[in-house]
């Protein structure tokens, strides 16, 4: 069975990943914070292995074009995969903001808008870990919040925009250096070419200027980030039967420090 977006295997994979995330949450949400953190870090490390696996599978398959210098761990989704273990273990709020907002959205969008290069491989082919790694980027980013390691705020949703721009700015000099030396096709963060990504293609049609065409994306994604906070707050009000109000996970203050349960 080939893995292609919006086909039976693709839907099954999404349901399995979402179900695994829910089961993980229900299993650990009432456990002590150190255990929650270690368990989630282990899952995040496993996801790094999934990411490495599909990259190696593509790089070693001579039948597909997967240039090494175009696929360094500098794409937003790959950066997310590698930083998730750090975000789980290190109480650094900007890092968790990046994982919860652009990290989750990028992972989810990749599942629906990945290019034809990633389509049609058999379900058990190691290349299929592309889909698993991106799905888990979204799942683990959500678990950071649902398990109480991070409490997103509307202020965080707004700050996620300059944080993402700063991250892209750090990668841009590497992209320019690669394009000037070993790989003219280097295109991290899609700054030169939308490469088939739906909304980026639309923006590139209206503003056919590298880098600048992505600027209108910022006001487009802000409502999505704000919606993430609203959904989190709505779900956080749903308590398991028999669970007293205020019990459960410690929250995280807007400045990244841990607080006692029930404080905000």
Describe what you observe in this structure.
This protein has a two-stranded antiparallel ribbon with strand order 1-2. It is 59% helix and 2% strand. It has one domain. The radius of gyration is 19 Å and the shape is globular. The chain has eight helices and two strands; from the N terminus they run βααααβαααα. Helix 4 runs antiparallel to helix 5. The protein has 264 residues and is mostly helical. The C terminus is likely disordered. The N and C termini lie far apart (49 Å). It comes from Myceligenerans crystallogenes. Keywords: Membrane, Transmembrane, Transmembrane helix. This is Integral membrane protein (Intg_mem_TP0381). It holds the Pfam family TMEM164.
Strand order of the largest sheet: 1-2
The beta-strand count equals 2
Number of separate structural domains:
1
- Overall shape: it is globular
Enumerate the spans where pLDDT stays under 50 for 5 or more consecutive residues: 241-264
Name the helix and strand elements from N-terminus to C-terminus, one letter apiece: EHHHHEHHHH
Structural class: mainly alpha
Largest sheet: 2 strands, antiparallel
Whole-number average pLDDT? 90
Strand content: under 5%
Please name the defining characteristics of this protein.
264 residues, 8 helices, mainly alpha, 59% helix, disordered C terminus
């Amino acid at each position: 069975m080939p893995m292609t977006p919006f086909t039976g295997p693709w839907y099954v994979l999404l349901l399995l990943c979402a179900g695994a995330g829910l089961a993980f949450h229900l299993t650990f949400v009432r456990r002590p914070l150190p255990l929650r953190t270690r368990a989630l870090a282990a899952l995040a490390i496993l996801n790094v292995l999934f990411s490495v696996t599909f990259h190696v599978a593509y790089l070693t398959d001579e039948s597909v074009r997967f240039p090494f210098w175009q696929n360094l761990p500098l794409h937003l989704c790959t950066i997310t995969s590698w930083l998730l273990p750090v975000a789980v273990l290190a109480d650094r709020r900007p890092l968790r903001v990046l994982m919860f907002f652009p990290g989750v959205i990028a992972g989810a969008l990749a599942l629906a808008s990945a290019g034809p290069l990633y389509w049609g491989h058999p379900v058990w082919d190691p290349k299929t870990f592309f889909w698993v790694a991106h799905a888990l980027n979204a799942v683990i980013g959500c678990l950071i919040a649902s398990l109480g390691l991070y409490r997103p705020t509307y202020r965080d949703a707004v700050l996620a925009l300059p944080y993402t721009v700063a991250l892209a700015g750090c990668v841009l000099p590497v992209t320019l250096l690669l394009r000037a030396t070993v790989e003219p096709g280097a295109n991290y963060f899609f700054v030169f070419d939308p490469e088939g990504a739906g909304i980026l293609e639309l923006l590139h049609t209206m503003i056919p200027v590298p880098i600048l065409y992505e600027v209108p994306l910022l006001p487009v994604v802000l409502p999505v980030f704000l919606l993430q906070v609203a959904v989190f707050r709505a779900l956080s009000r749903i308590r398991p039967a028999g669970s007293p109000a205020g019990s459960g996970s410690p929250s995280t203050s807007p400045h990244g420090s841990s607080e006692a349960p029930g404080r905000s």
